[in-house]
Request: fold
Amino acid sequence: MKLARDTWLIYQRQMTLVVRTPLRLVIGFVQPLAYLLLFAPLLKSALGTDSYAEAYRVYVPGLLIVLVLFSGFFVGFSLIAELRAGIIEKSRVTPVSRFALLLGRALSEVTTMMAQAVVITLLAIPFGLTVSIVPLLLAYLVLTLMGLLASSVSYAMALQIRNVAALGPLINTVSQPLALLSGVLLPMAFAPLWLVSVAKGNPFYWATEGVRTLFDGRIAEPAVGMSFLISILGAGLAVVWATRMFANRVR
Amino acid sequence: MIETIGLRKTYTSGKGSKAKAVEAVRGVDLSVDKAEIFGFLGPNGAGKTTTLRMLSTLITPDGGQATIAGADLLKDPHEVRQRIGYVAQGGGTTDEVTAREELVLQARLYGIGKAEAQRRAVAALDTFELTEYADRNCATYSGGQRRRVDIAMGVIHEPQVLFLDEPTTGLDPQSRVRLWDEVRRLRNEGMTVFLTTHYLDEADALCDRIAIIDHGEIVAEGTPTALKHEIAGDVVTVGVDGISDKAAELLTGAAHIRQIEIVDADSLRLYVDEGATAIPHILRTLDGSNVEFNKMELNRPSLDDVFLIKTGRSLRE
Reply:
């Protein structure tokens, strides 16, 4: 199938570039790592948990959600850069699928995020994080879908405004409330009722709840099913929206 | 191989009530034959690049028709893409990958299978004498090497038509001549090459036929030789000390002179039927009125003269 084949070709090329410029990987780590080392230790007393392990089990899922949320929302910058540099134009004169040009890029960005997610999980283990493998893999799946959602929305915003100076503030405007309303720093269980009802409109809230439940090992809880449903739907819609916009505007 | 009728493109600049339509290309008719190097010349902003981008499917024309390699540009751009190659002005190599990787990916984007793509890459590296650097990152290449990779990428799928946007801009003279040879070789193999350039010597030396575009319209078209013949037999350049206005006035309407161009205060270009008969006449006229001149030169007209006559400005400015 042409779309799958072309997407794979673009994905491979983008991954080659990621691997050959390791700095890109490293930069994405710095912020989550800082939170892991400098913020998470406060949580044991702040959350009133009995052990560091428990605090990390609450906090690490949130950190991973923040990682895919912010990394995802910022991929629009690289799209604008590539459009400006004529890199995408070079592909546009070939019969390559227009959807693949964007989808291959989005998937490579998500792969990078997930590699970072794995490293952060591993780094949290010495601090006392414990999690079993099957729920962890399921959690990664939710994270992958949410990364795809954030990346697609970011591409759509980039295509809409095409201006690096305006894109930054727009991304912050959208991503900050999404992050705050997802309960990534502190569980939404501490929130007043009205805040919780607002948060329920945020797909990242459901993802955070789901991933936390999975880290807790409770696979059968409805929160897990909800997070899957919402991340699949959200990612699907966002990908279709962004790729169609790309195919129409960039042609 | 390329036929266009009334190809048009209008851009809108500004927004709302300030919106202004800019007619970048206003009805271009072109006809380019198979195995021909066709040069497209024009000052900046004349519509050169817009036309090229329309023909290579990057932007959609607002009006007109075009058939490229037998495919309809407006109805079937996908098919056009299969049949053409395009090399952008700045080229398109990526610093972090090798020429071989670029060529394989490019072939695969045209739907060619992996094994065949690799075979073609090897052949292209050989043809363009890039084998030596094939597995080094493009970042390490010289300007000339990069350009050869660009062109090898443009022809990896054996297109019938190759579009080159300012192919030799920024190259040193040696690389330039070498690139010309590559382009000629492709033409000799039966490929149609459509290129834009702002070097008149390049158009003269390389192109079988050229067209000059100005203000979105074709103002001249033909072989370089025919175009040069069309304007005049010869060009006489006269050097006068700050009185070119006076000298021009004096020579206006004189026998054998077709047209007078004031270059600056100190020199004039006279387009004459034949230099040998016109020069004695010019000498007598100037001498008779005591107009001092310090230089008189006889030249065959260059493409720059064609350009000057057709567009009213020199491309060298």
